[in-house]
Specification:
Layout: H1 13-38, H2 45-52, H3 56-62, H4 66-89, H5 95-110, H6 113-120, H7 128-154, H8 163-175, H9 177-180, H10 189-202
């Protein structure tokens, strides 16, 4: 009778990929927090490596040069905002309810490390190709928000005289949380976002 194979000390391909993804995520999280706290230009990859007690070449191995690290941080934040817009568009209910859903998620994402980086960090440090991708994603999110507003106006659940200006006002108010929100604060991001959105929405609810 064949003896069944015992446990192997060698990781399979799936385990190696999981480990790589976990290490890459740890590098990104350390980098984005430093970019947010110190500023992109005053943070070096040596700083990021030292905070994780790894070598700088290891960061290059997982992510590439400093501008590539920034691009990935921005891409993650923008991807979460885009997913929020897509999820909002698929929600049942009135246009105003879908709009509120997106705005609340927008507020929550902006208070996360990667969302905060989208607001705090200029994309001028990126390569031309990466900058174009980031700006295209920002336009897509902006257009998604405007469509939600248009739908709310069309079904009569919202009264918005100037959609472009209202978009700037709402995103500006929600984005400003990155200046004063403290992760260690007593109120969780979801509650902060919900209260802010309730205040903003009152300005576009139909009267009478």
């Amino acid at each position: 009778m064949d003896t069944p194979p015992g446990p192997t000390p060698f990781r399979n391909a799936g385990e190696r990929e999981q480990e790589r993804a976990a290490k890459r995520d740890a590098v990104l999280r350390a980098a984005v927090r430093m970019f947010n706290e110190r500023g992109f230009h005053t943070t070096s990859l040596d700083d990021v490596a030292a905070s994780l007690q790894i070598s700088k070449p290891l960061i290059y191995h997982y992510l590439g040069a400093k501008d590539q690290v920034l691009f990935e941080c921005l891409r993650l934040g923008l991807t979460r905002l885009r997913e929020a817009a897509e999820a909002a568009a698929a929600q049942p209910g009135t246009g105003l309810e879908r709009l509120k859903y997106f705005l609340r998620r927008y507020g929550e994402v902006i208070m996360d490390d990667f969302g905060r980086c989208v607001v705090r960090t200029d994309d001028e440090a990126l390569s031309t190709a990466s900058r174009a991708k980031v700006r295209a994603m920002k336009r897509e999110i902006d257009q998604g928000l405007r469509r939600l507003m248009e739908e709310a106006v069309a079904d009569g659940s919202a009264c918005i005289g100037d959609i472009k200006l209202t978009t700037f006002a709402f995103t500006g108010a929600l984005s400003w949380t990155m200046r004063w929100h403290k992760p260690e604060g007593g109120m969780p991001p979801g509650e902060i976002a919900g209260r802010l959105v309730d205040i903003l929405i009152r300005g576009i609810e139909p009267r009478g």
